[in-house]
Amino acid sequence: MKITVVGSGYVGLVTGACLAEVGNDVLCLDLDPRKIATLREGGIPIYEPGLEDMVRRNAAAARLRFTTSVEEAVEHGTIQFIAVGTPPGEDGSADLQYVVAAARNIGRYMDGYKLVVDKSTVPVGTADRVRAAIAEELTARGLKLHFDMVSNPEFLKEGAAIEDFMRPDRIVIGADSEQARDTMRQLYRPFQRNHERLIVMDVRSAELTKYAANAMLATRISFMNELANLAELLDADIEQVRQGIGADPRIGYHFLYPGVGYGGSCFPKDVSALRRTAAEHGMEMQLLGAVEQVNALQKQRLVNKVERHFGADLCGRHFALWGLAFKPNTDDMREAPSLDIIDGLLARGATVTAYDPVAIHEAKKLLGERIRYAANPMAALDGADALLIATEWKEFRSPDFEAIRAKLRQPLIFDGRNLYEPAAMRELGFDYEAIGRR
Ligand code: UDX
Fold first, then answer.
1. Is the pLDDT score of 92 beyond 80?
2. Which residue range(s) make up the domain with 283?
3. How far does residue 269's CA lie from ligand 1's centre (Å)?
């Protein structure tokens, strides 16, 4: 099939590469000429395991091409994926200007049937706006061309995006016409494993499904964080509680890990946008308000623990921080809890040296010279009063504790990701504080 993907960011690139991988003829559009130049040279502008190889392989086979020409892009694909950014506006609602601009371009240049698929995360009702924008452009050209509109939200996790796309646990399709549904079924046939993954519904329900999923997961995390804080007060162990409740299949083990609060490009933005949508319809989503409040507090949790130990004035104190990215296997720093932790430490007069396996480059863009950066985990520890852990990178799981102890001024670790066993840490002579653990 001939497919155009509008927007060569994270979602667009993964979608384009994976659709090319199964044999489609894919053209990716981006208005940023530098991004397209990088992609044409075989580089990728983001860090995502497996993506670079996949892009190169499919580009070499000429199944995946890149352009800055809107006209060429609209002409190419019978299926037009819209995968542009929807950054949060000042009031927390999703900013739809790029989505609407993409729609207008389609209306401006299309000369036959198009199936327009929205992959960007957009508020309920956006498909109608996209449809209206395309229709307006067609009317301005004096044309009456048929097109269909589909909502096909993405559920990719950063760091596992290729796997999520190639082996999805579900593919949500919101479509209003039989032709659109058939085309989408055909398009996704190669990604069905041994049973049906396609869940077909109406457009508005598909749009809401995306927000519902992320809001539910964010709620679980805030709930576990609050429960972990309570466990500390009660002298209970959240790790044992987690296993005890996760064994109930109605609850399940996934997304039950307390920590330093959720971050990233999706949860904070989507929870806030969903609240906003509800408010626009005269409804206050009480629960989601609390989810956000709990998360904001949790991002301060590690700093509060440091404060309890050293007092509010941290002048002259120096801290090592392991992990900057909002989660492992990504260099993404958007809404990363590490930023709140760093802010909190610096505001109290401390200095920080941070290490992250891949996110240092991104962190430098945001933090510049406010902190120091180390080339490896051990180098971050020199002369530090304590080690703080903000991201659960694999390489932090089993470090050389003797070396850590030798480097720190005192054997003190504040672990925001519960990587180690408190009892074992005590035996190693560490003062170890985790989240919700005894
Ligand atoms: C999320 C959704 O999982 C994905 O389906 C959607 O398409 C986009 O948003 P992502 O933001 O990449 O994906 O990361 P995810 O792995 O879901 O983690 C989100 C945040 O929650 C991270 O900050 C992570 O540390 C935190 N988290 C996750 C917890 O604190 N505890 C958990 O148990 C799980």
1. no
2. 211-296
3. 12
Q: State whether 195 and 223 are in the same domain.
A: no
Contacts with 163 (C-beta within 8 Å, 6 or more apart), sequence order: 50
Nearest CA to ligand 1 atom 20: 262
CATH number for position 375? 3.40.50.720
Identify the residue whose C-alpha is closest to ligand 1 atom 21: 262
What does the pLDDT read at residue 355?
A: 98
Instruction: Tell me how far the alpha carbon of residue 66 lies from the centroid of ligand 1, in angstroms.
Output: 30
With respect to residue 438, please indicate whether it lies within any of the assigned structural domains.
no
pTM of the predicted model over 0.80: yes
Q: DSSP letters of 141-193? A: TT----EEEEE----PPTTSHHHHHHS-S-EEEEESSHHHHHHHHHHHGGG--
Same domain, 102 and 186: yes
In this structure, the answer to whether residues 37 and 16 fall within a common structural domain is: yes
Within-domain flag for 206: no
Which atom of ligand 1 lies closest to the CA of 330?
12
CB atoms within 10 A of CB 431: 13
Phi and psi angles of residue 52, each rounded to the nearest 5 degrees, phi first: -60, -45
User: 427 and 348, same structural domain?
Assistant: yes
Q: Say if 218 falls within a structural domain.
A: yes
pLDDT tens per residue across span 408-431? 999 999 999 999 999 999 999 999
Using CA atoms, how far residue 317 sits from 310, 320, 399, in Å, is: 9, 10, 24
* DSSP secondary structure, 254-305, as one string: TT----S---SSSHHHHHHHHHHHHHHTT---HHHHHHHHHHHHHTTHHHHH
Shared-domain flag, residues 52 and 183: yes
Which of 251, 267, 296 is the endpoint of a domain? 296
Residue 243 and residue 184 in one domain: no
Does ligand 1 come within 6 angstroms of the Cβ of 326? yes
Dist. CA 435 → ligand 1 center (Å): 18
Please identify every residue annotated as catalytic: 266
Whether residue 118 contacts residue 82, with contact meaning beta carbons closer than 8 Å, is answered with: yes
* ipTM reported for the complex, 2 dp: 0.95
The protein residue whose alpha carbon is closest to atom 9 in ligand 1 is 266
Domain count, the chain: 3
User: Residues 192, 221: one domain?
Assistant: no
Q: How far is the CA of 286 from the centre of ligand 1 (A)?
A: 22
> Integer distance in angstroms from the first to the last C-alpha of the chain?
57
